[in-house]
Write a structure and sequence with these properties.
Blueprint lengths: L1 H46 L16 H10 L3 E7 L5 E5 L23 E2 L9 E5 L23 H4 L1 E5 L4 E13 L15 H14 L14 E8 L2 E13 L2
Parallel strand pairs: 4-7
Antiparallel strand pairs: 1-2, 1-5, 3-4, 5-6, 6-8, 7-8
C-alpha cells in the first residue's frame, strides 16, 4: 500500500509540475506577443507624419525622414515592405548572415517571430532580391504568414501589388509566381542573384512554371528585376512557400 501511495503522490506531483510548466510557457508566450505588438506600434509611430494644413493633400508615410528614424533604431534596416492590400507591412533588415534575425526583433531583442530579412549575399541592385520571414503558427497575420493567402487564385487580384520603400525611392512589384518546393526532393536554388542570359533565366523559372499554383500571366524576362519571398509551410518542415514578384513601372 505504501508503494502505491508513493507512486500516486509522484503522479500527482508530475501532473502539478506539468501544469505549472505549461502555464508558465503560455504566460511567457503571451508576454512576448505583447512585446512584439508594442514594438510594431512604436515602428508605426515613427512613420507618422505631421498633419497637412491642406485637408486635400495626403502626407506620405515613407519619406527620407521616416527612413532615417528607422535607421536610427536599427542600422541594418534597408527598406519597408508593404502590400497594397495591407496583408504585410513590415521593416526589412539585412545582416552579415542569414541567422542573426531568425530569433531577433527589429530592435534586436530576443523574439521567436524574428524579423524578415534580405539574404546577406544580396546587393540591392541584383536582378533577384531574396527575403526570408517566419510562418507564425499562433497568428496568421504576423511576419510572412499572410503569404499563404496567395496560394488561392481568388486572393490574387487583391494582394498582387507589393512596394519596397527605400530612403529615396519606392519600387513597385506585381506577383508573378506562387509555388512550393521540398528541399529534400529538389536541388532547385531560388536565391540566384543575377542572370547573364535569357537561357539562364528560363532555366531558373522552369521549376516555378511547372509547380505554380496558378498562372498569373506575368512573365519575367532578361533585364527585369524581381523579388523572392520565402517562408515555411505549416506542419511540413521540409517544404517552403515561395512568392516571386516582378518590378513594374507605374
Amino acid at each position: 500500500m505504501k508503494i502505491k501511495k508513493i507512486l500516486l503522490d509522484i503522479c500527482i506531483l508530475l501532473c502539478i509540475g506539468t501544469f505549472m510548466f505549461s502555464t508558465f510557457k503560455i504566460f511567457e508566450f503571451q508576454m512576448e506577443m505583447r512585446k512584439i505588438e508594442q514594438e510594431q506600434k512604436e515602428i508605426e509611430q515613427l512613420l507618422e507624419t505631421t498633419p497637412s494644413t491642406n485637408e486635400e493633400v495626403e502626407e506620405p508615410r515613407f519619406t527620407p525622414e521616416s527612413f532615417d528614424k528607422l535607421k536610427e533604431v536599427n542600422k541594418d534596416y534597408v527598406f519597408y515592405l508593404e502590400f497594397d492590400s495591407g496583408i504585410i507591412s513590415l521593416p526589412i533588415v539585412q545582416s552579415y548572415d542569414n541567422d542573426y534575425y531568425l530569433r531577433r526583433s527589429f530592435k534586436r531583442k530576443s523574439s521567436l517571430q524574428g524579423t524578415p530579412f534580405v539574404d546577406y549575399r544580396n546587393l540591392l541592385n541584383d536582378d533577384n532580391i531574396t527575403m526570408y520571414g517566419h510562418y507564425v503558427y499562433a497568428d496568421a497575420s504576423k511576419m510572412f504568414t499572410p503569404l499563404t493567402k496567395l496560394k488561392k487564385q481568388e486572393n490574387y487580384e487583391t494582394n498582387k501589388i507589393v512596394r519596397l520603400h527605400f530612403r529615396d525611392e519606392t519600387r513597385t512589384y506585381v506577383v508573378a509566381y506562387v509555388y512550393e518546393f521540398d528541399y529534400t526532393k529538389t536541388q532547385y536554388d531560388y536565391t540566384i542573384r543575377n542572370f547573364a542570359s535569357q537561357e539562364a533565366l528560363d532555366d531558373f523559372f522552369a521549376y516555378p512554371k511547372k509547380h505554380q499554383y496558378y498562372d498569373t500571366n506575368v512573365d519575367i524576362e532578361l533585364g527585369d528585376s524581381f523579388i523572392t519571398f520565402q517562408t515555411c509551410v505549416r506542419n511540413q518542415d521540409t517544404k517552403r512557400l515561395i512568392v516571386v514578384a516582378k518590378q513594374i513601372e507605374e
